[in-house]
Design a protein that fits this description.
The structure is a single chain. The protein is an all-alpha fold. It has three domains: 34 residues; 131 residues, Globin-like (Orthogonal Bundle); 152 residues, Phycocyanins (Globin-like, Orthogonal Bundle).
């Protein structure tokens, strides 16, 4: 359409103005349309050879619209849960949440563009993400459902907008953000600081922590094998997107368990994890039968990892999960 606009010539106007200098409005209009055409060509010519700085800049320019789309998706999926769970609407502020997400992903893209490793970014961003999480959950822990979904969908949409060759690298940065928002890592670190290094409870947690991701992959594989035809809101259990989210969720359950062990208190599960599952899983079409299987497998895998003696520190909280996700109290019809 731009090309047609540029090449079209009105014969009558040409005859009248062939000997005249083009007016300033005509010059400006032609210049503006030509610049748009060049920009279209430049955008169309973007390919996998882009520098990281170019990729980061392009994604940053898309971040505002992506953030708006992410909130629309979050609102569509769980907006009704505000009233259902009787959460104060004043605590679920889309503007504040979107502003926090924009700032964090700006930091992530800057780290990516400057060749900062995802591991280093995790260390640098941990305090910031912990403060964001704590700030939004201080009055009501259930608000984390809206915050974490906004951040998750922002990362997902940014990945989709990136060149395919850069997605694996960006995924590592966005996973840092996802993990820190979904999981009470900062809370666990603070609880751990209250123990002497050789305390049996801290020792048990140190055994479990390095195995978290391996345990998550094992459990996700076994659940997918048990339910080969099951499909969530996003897709089948074997799809890459669902598998990534499932691994993160099993890791999340483990971090909540470790937090309870370190705090010697069930509050993290009862006040935050459980309401979060009630809010999100029905909307995402995750069956409670799958969750119960995951909890059962989690007990087995942690026990295998830390040994019978150390498992005594986990038993009270794995039992809490069994009780809370029991079919008697938590049917699939909820």
């Amino acid at each position: 359409m731009l090309a047609n606009f540029q090449t079209y010539t009105n014969p009558r106007l040409t005859a009248q103005s062939s000997s005249k200098t083009s007016s300033l409005p005509e010059v400006w209009a032609r210049k503006y349309v030509e610049s748009l055409h060049r920009q279209d060509q430049a955008l169309a010519g973007l390919n996998q050879s882009q520098s990281k700085a170019d990729v980061a800049q392009n994604l940053l320019e898309s971040l505002r619209s992506i953030s708006a789309n992410a909130w629309n998706k979050t609102e569509t999926l769980i907006g009704h849960e505000i009233r259902r769970h009787q959460i104060s609407r004043d605590l679920v502020d889309p503007w504040t949440i979107a502003k926090d997400a924009h700032h964090v992903y700006e930091l992530a893209l800057d780290a990516y563009a400057n060749d900062v490793s995802p591991q280093r970014f995790s260390v640098v961003a941990s305090k910031k993400l912990g403060a964001i999480r704590q700030g939004h959950t201080a009055m009501d822990p259930r608000v984390i459902g809206f915050v974490s979904m906004q951040f998750h969908y922002c990362g997902q949409m940014l990945s989709e907008a990136a060149p395919p060759s850069e997605r694996p690298v960006l995924h590592d940065f966005f996973k840092v953000v996802d993990d820190q928002l979904y999981m009470p890592l900062h809370r666990a670190y603070e609880a751990a600081a209250n123990y002497d290094y050789d305390h049996p409870r801290l020792k048990a947690v140190r055994l479990a922590l390095p195995a978290i991701t391996g345990i998550a992959h094992t459990i996700v594989d076994r659940v997918a094998q048990a339910y080969p035809r099951y499909a969530t809101y996003t897709g089948s259990l074997s799809s890459d997107v669902v598998r990534t989210s499932s691994v993160r969720d099993v890791e999340m359950f483990q971090i909540y368990l470790l937090t309870c062990v370190l705090e010697d208190n069930v509050g993290a599960i009862a006040q935050e994890l459980f309401p979060l599952c009630v809010m999100l899983y029905p909307a995402l079409r995750v069956s409670w039968e799958l969750v119960r299987l995951m909890v059962s497998l989690l007990h087995q895998e942690i026990s295998r990892c830390v040994g019978r003696m150390n498992m005594q520190h986990f038993e009270p909280y794995t039992q809490v999960l069994f009780d809370m996700f029991s079919p008697e109290f938590f049917p699939d019809t909820l």
